[in-house]
Amino acid sequence: MLQLIFKKSFVSIYNQYDLTLVSSSITYQKIVSMEIKNAMYVNFHGFDIEKFESATITTNFWESNYQIPNLDNKVKIVFLGRLTEDKGWKFTLDAFVRLQQLVNIENISIIIVGDGPMRDEISNRLAQATNLVYLLGRVPPENVPNILKNSDFHVTASEKETRGLTVLEAFAAGIPVVAPQAGGVTENIEDGKNGLLFTPGNQESFCEKLKLLIEDSNLRIKMGINAKESVAKYSWDNAVANLVKIWQEQILLKS
Q1: Which ranges of the chain would DSSP assign to H, the alpha helix?
Q2: Which residues of the chain have pLDDT under 70?
Q3: In this predicted structure, what is the pLDDT of residue 56?
Q4: How many Å apart are CA 182 and CA 54, to the nearest integer?
Q5: Strand, coil or helix: what is 153?
Q6: Are the C-beta atoms of 20 and 39 separated by less than 8 Å?
Q7: Closest by alpha carbon to 187, among 19, 21, 27?
Q8: Which is nearest to 117 in space by CA: 161, 86, 158?
Q9: Predicted structure pTM score
Q10: Nearest-angstrom CA–CA distance, 250 and 254
Q11: Distance (Å, rounded) from C-alpha 33 to C-alpha 57?
Q12: What does the alpha-carbon distance between residue 138 and residue 112 come to, in Å, rounded to a whole number?
């Protein structure tokens, strides 16, 4: 009963506005189903693309900056985000047991950027699979572009992203992304073009996608080029222009 009352109040408040703007089609579908009648789906999601595009691939980057030697010839898989269960880490840890049977684990390194309550569990369980796991913890935001640029691809197992900023950042840095076919990330990832989508909750599907990118450097490069081209519309200039256009249209309607 309380949930019903809260929902009706919530919907009533939002329906008093001229517009409710959302930047995710997933969110748009949800609020329309709640009977919010003034919803508009529009891209006003932006980030500083130039910082990622200007990042550079540097020889001995990992040793010079993070005291991690001998990574230049390995396939570097980067995870960027909070180390929490809602980011799909339970699934990821279980899947890595299967991955060991499919690829030469010594040819890859796993870079984890972020912190959270699952840090120790992630560290302990992945250490059982390979000694090439590096948890960097939280890093300054200005370091993220070069971390992504000097990695080979980004992985997320989160099924609840509304848009997935780390996906866009990886694309801007020119690397592909492996993600579940769920949530807002599907708006940006074109399966087989700028990244790979796996069946949510399916370890076989997840590991097959990882294996494909681990073993095919040409595919990684091709997808990275496509990824970089796909994020141009997320510049701040474009996001602000979209928002200003909506305001101007609403002002005309009111005049």
Answers
A1: 2-14, 25-33, 49-53, 61-66, 89-99, 119-129, 144-149, 165-173, 203-215, 217-229, 236-254
A2: 129
A3: 94
A4: 30
A5: strand
A6: yes
A7: 27
A8: 86
A9: 0.86
A10: 6
A11: 46
A12: 9
Task: List, in order, residues 6 or more apart from 128 with CB less than 8 Å away.
Answer: none
Closest-CA residue to 125 (of 101, 99, 93, 87): 93
CA angle, 82 then 171 then 118, to 5°: 15
Domains and CATH numbers, the chain: 2-46+235-254 (no CATH), 50-231 (3.40.50.2000)
Per-residue model confidence as pLDDT tens digits over 53-69: 899 999 999 999 999 99
Classify 11 as helix, strand or coil: helix
Residues 6 or more apart whose CB falls under 8 angstroms from that of 125 comprise: 93, 96
Closest C-alpha among 179, 231, 229 to residue 206 = 179
Q: How many Å apart are CA 121 and CA 100, to the nearest integer?
A: 18
Amino acid at 186: T
What distance in Å separates the CA atoms of residue 110 and residue 126, rounded to the nearest whole number? 9
Alpha-carbon span 115 to 141, nearest angstrom: 14
- CA proximity to 213, closest of 107, 58, 62: 107
Q: How far is CA 232 from CA 56, 126, 137, 237, in A?
A: 19, 36, 29, 10
3-state secondary structure of 137: strand
The encoded tokens of residue 88 equal: 């799909």
